[in-house]
Amino acid sequence: MATIAIFNQKGGVGKTTTCLNLTAGLTRAQRCPVVIDLDPQAHMTLASGVRDVRADTSVAAFFKGGAPLANLIQETAGGWQLIPATLELAKIDVMFGNDTQAGMMLSHGLKEELALTGAPVLIDCCPMLGVLTLNALLAADRVLIPVSADFLSLQGVHRLEVALNVLETKLKRKIERRVVVTRFDARRKLAFEIYDKVKERYGDLVCNTRISENVALATSPMHAKDIFSFAPNSPGAVDYKALTLELIKSGFFS
Questions:
Q1: Is residue 156 part of a domain?
Q2: Which Gene3D superfamilies match (predicted)?
Q3: What is the number of domains present in the chain?
Q4: What sections of 77-188 are H helices per DSSP?
């Protein structure tokens, strides 16, 4: 089982869009992923078509009351399994902010309850480095970092790189990471400049596939659909299919 945290400290970079459509791509490839929504905004939950989630049936119940992760899994219309989020998650940072062991809760829970399934686990993180995201990063085997083709998003990657290096020192293990450039608009010179800067700094860590700016990608979550179900012939579907295959072939989900 590979656990993948999808994270950037800047919002609006296509983090949930990437989680949603990689999950759908893996489902289409018969990889049977499990997704954990660790964002109190619950965008991944909503995009998966799951509504009216109670706190006691969400991932908040795991952190607050020790509910088994396996008991919180819900089936989605898209065919993947989801542990949903609610706004109740926003209280976790306050509850555990001074607990030095709180960052390992998810890691322990995954190993005890989901490790035997062999399914890849994708974690949609909130865009800030707090207790929830620390849980995701400490539980993760690998981190996928979406970077939209703009200057501020690039700065978020640099900050995350520093944080991951610190965690690696403490954990005494390497956290494998990949960077994917999103919201790439080939009509803008800036997009190519940002892409070149990302490649210059991160080299082979950067995915070959770029995700083009695409209206269908922004619209599909409103209909609780992934891009393959909503607009299968769109540039977004083509790009996310290519990204899924690239990451599968590289062993990122294994």
A1: yes
A2: P-loop containing nucleotide triphosphate hydrolases
A3: 1
A4: 92-96, 105-113, 131-139, 151-171
